[in-house]
Amino acid sequence: MADAADLRGTTSARARRWLRRTAALLAAAPMIAGLTQIPAAPAAHAESKATGSRSVDVSITSLTPTAPKKSDTLTVSGTVTNDTKGTVSGAQVALRVGPTMNGRNAIDTAAHRTGYSEGLDGTEIGGKYAKKIGKLSAGASRDFSLSIPVDQLHLGENGVYQLGVSLTGGTSSQPWPQVLGIERTFLPWQSGPSTKKSQLTYLWPLISAVHVTARTDNDEDRTPIFRDDRLAEELAPGGRLQQMVTLGKNLPITWVIDPDLLATVDAMTKKYEVQNPSGNGTRAGSGQTVAKQWLDALQKAVDGKQVVALPFADPDLASLAHRGKNVTGALSHLQGATELASTTVETILGVRPRTDFAWPVDGAVDSSIVDVATSAGAHNVIARSDSLRETGGLSYTPTAARQIGGGNTAVVADARLSTAFTGDMSKAENSTLAIQRFLAQSQMVNLQAPDKQRSIVVAPQRTPTTSQAQAMAAALEGLSGQWTQPLGLGQAAKAKPDPNATQRVPSSRSYPRSLRARELPTDAFNKIQETQKTLDNFEPILTAKYRVVTPFGNAIRREMSTSWRSEARNAAGFRHDVQTYLSGLTKKVRLVPKTDMTLSGRSATVPVTVQNNLVQSVELRLVLRSQQGNRLAVSEPQLVNVEGGHSQSVKFGTTANANGPVWVSAQLYTPDGQPYGREMLFEVNVTEITSTVILVIAGGVLLLVLAGVRIYVQRKRAAAKSDEDGGDGEDAEKAHGQDEDDSEAPRTDRCDPAHALVPEQPSDPAPDTGSQSAGPSGSGEKVDH
């Protein structure tokens, strides 16, 4: 950005003089060569000496102060290593101050240049400020430390000076003194206050990977189960996140936080379980103490600072825009994640965050990403200058904010400053050079247009390592307000846009292929919606919805996290685990399978058992349907409330109109009328009862007739005997009484069959049949009538 005009807009007076002299010498070189017939020695010839200059490796591992003042003493330390097979004699290490850089491009060029160039690398500051090493054997290394008062560097006007450390010496083939190795860095020099300081916004991200599964223990506290315990290491002293908080509390930064990280750490402050690496069983988590300490430290660090909350779980906006927006319902998760972000941060940290910022991966934007990012209310999109490129030929880096239409603002972070610490900062050499280059670029931004104050935003990598965070902090401390002043991200978004800055958002064709290749696939969003559909069907039957909806809702949001980039296999595994676990929970509420039944009688009851192996109670509607209603009618549907860990038997009245088998289906429904689980079919065999009753009645009538005949015969015999024997009436009377006693037996016999015709209604079962009811009914189950 603005590199083409760096020379015109930033060259200091001294640099201009030096360039004029160099140009004059180069212009005169052909003439001199023609007059003297001696070949000219252009810069390319000096660069050809680079072969020798790389024979000794020079590394700068420390430079203090990073942005010195006139009264300071500059100290540069490092190591020299002889990479040749011979001995270097008369070795000496010394500083070299080169010319001021004439633009941001010049800084990049000098940083990548290798070898020694006599015309570009300045003169050696020898004497007492050099360090004599003497002989340096093949493969040997020696540490050095050079100290020199800043006023002895003879720095001129404000600017970025090239600073080199070189080793001179001789070799066996070339025993005279020559530069055998050099390392370059940059020295920002500010002799007096800037006319107008750049307003610098530095984002300080607190983001981590997904650590929590959707699973919880079946206890009242819903103890969470973690995928791993790596977060405890990040929170422990010296860990990445612990360092981010410790370093950030005293820096002029804007905190950018993923609320999921806060929710996860908050869960760790209580009892939590961690999955074993084998996947079988869990173990107790170890991070409870460090989690409490980290949250306490963070609450103090953000006090009085601006906090920006990303949508919960930091959803991958580019993946949503390119792969997910055409999947029905996928975009709705972004709105929910944004709403949850505010409540999570405010609840845990006690501060109200800004939730109107979206941050696509690496600040890479196109029109579809902007549309998705702003769909959930984030009207400020954090982009980067290597994505939203300047096309107007500006001679300076413009203010970060610019209007991109629809009432939305792109906050364009500076690419050079944002990527300054993406390398391996665990090596002191890399860290030192990165810090000096960051300071040089930030000062050069200010020098481009010292009378024009601009707002500059730095958006570093999402998850800096510990060493990267330490280098970032050192660079911010090195600024010390000499040419910059801090500004919050909210204020940077409101800054007056530069009228000449680009406002055109790139098309989707310009999105980097390397980033697109790491996006979540469309299939991932289809699987996410499948899980959401399962959850939507499960939720209505629950009486304690928060026990399921909250953890699974968060798990679904975590499935869309930016942290899954480059972890396609783990992301797919996480989605599978969430869906599998949720489906398993839904199957804990079911109908207990039934076998065929026999109904003997015109009316009877059919029991159906609902089993609930969840911890909480469920509410459903149970419907029993006859596939042939003209033969077997079934009573109305019934509401069922089953306590957690219990079963409930529900009885339906039936009326039989014909004999034979009838298929009957049982189906659970949610209270809002959606089918729940699979339909259960069983066969009911209806037995006709009319012929049996007739036979019983006929048998009873026959017995009565026979009893009457017997009584008549007995009386006739008794009368005849009385006439023949002249017996008195008393005997006849006794005989008559005996006959009547005998006649009672048939009456008792005919009562039982008659009673069997009356349908017997069984009593209602106890509300809770317990776990013993879980098994299927026996083969050929028969319901008494």
Automatic annotation (TrEMBL):
For bias type Polar residues, the affected ranges are: 500-511
Instruction: Please give the start and end residues of each transmembrane region.
Output: 693-713
Q: Where is this region: Disordered?
A: 490-514, 718-785
**Membrane: present as a keyword of the record?**
yes
Q: Where is the composition biased (Basic and acidic residues)?
A: 732-753
Q: Show the InterPro entries listed in the entry.
A: DUF6049, Ig-like_fold, TonB_box_CS
Highest taxon above the source species:
Bacteria
Q: Which UniProt keywords apply?
A: Membrane, Transmembrane, Transmembrane helix
Q: Does the keyword Transmembrane helix apply?
A: yes
Which GO biological process annotations does it have? carbohydrate metabolic process
A Pfam family hit: DUF6049
Gene3D superfamilies registered for this protein in UniProt: Immunoglobulins (2.60.40.10)
Which protein is depicted?
DUF6049 family protein
Q: What is the lineage of its organism?
A: Bacteria, Bacillati, Actinomycetota, Actinomycetes, Kitasatosporales
